[in-house]
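fyi for ur records
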Amino acid sequence: MYEIVKTYALSEAVFEMWIRVPQVARNTQAGQFCIIHPDEAGERVPLTISGIEGDLIRVSFRAIGTTTKLLASLPAGACLRDVVGPLGMPSDIANGPETVVIIGGGVGVACTPIIAQTAKIAGNYVIGIIGARNKDLLILEDEMRSICDDLFVTTDDGSYGIKGFASGPLQTLCESGSKIDKVWIIGPGIMMKVTSGVTKPYGIKTYVSLNPVMVDGTGMCGSCRVTVDGERKFACVDGPEFDAHLVDWDDFLARQWMYCPEEKQSVEYREAHHGCRCRKVE
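which gave:
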């Protein structure tokens, strides 16, 4: 059993949880993930490891499905049945000096600090771009500001920072001729597709962290398959990070929506029988 040591509501539907898992904390590198099994009756959910503090790991998630809503209802002191990790390949972060841009959209912002911090420690110049639909949904700005050499903040509705999408500041940087060696983009599928399209004409190496449907996390079930450069890859063992310019985005986005009816049915069943116990933002 793995203890939840700290847990917070970062915004209306996004939660942060620190879990005591010494063996995972000791071995995790930026870009890797874990699979959490809350109880014997629940499903296994893959979550990126977004921070390490001693023998604790941090995961952040949007409470949207049956299992993530269950996780959001658990208080500090509760225990999880299983936490497996670290899984996947770490981020391809080179020793500097390089200029790297770390971009997060929505809940994907939660995964950016660990990559930004690792890149910074490696001697790189780090530019951060984080965005959300509005000011109330923006998360971890202070943490990213403390790490990055430069930080741009965007909101879709213009309620805070630069009005527009995260692709806007990236486009400006590319057009200005600024030296950019690598870009990481983490967020909703369509956001990663559009934003990675900005760097393609400039030949800038760009990584995206893909989150397809995943079951076992070891490459055996094949459910997390994605098409990259015309080849089948498994996000759990070959990724989760891939060259954004080689991803078959139409295939990826179509597969993400495959089980939406079943997911909706599962949430409705749980709320009808157990109610929604997500904690509110204080």
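The chain has two domains: 2-89, 99-209. thats all i got for now
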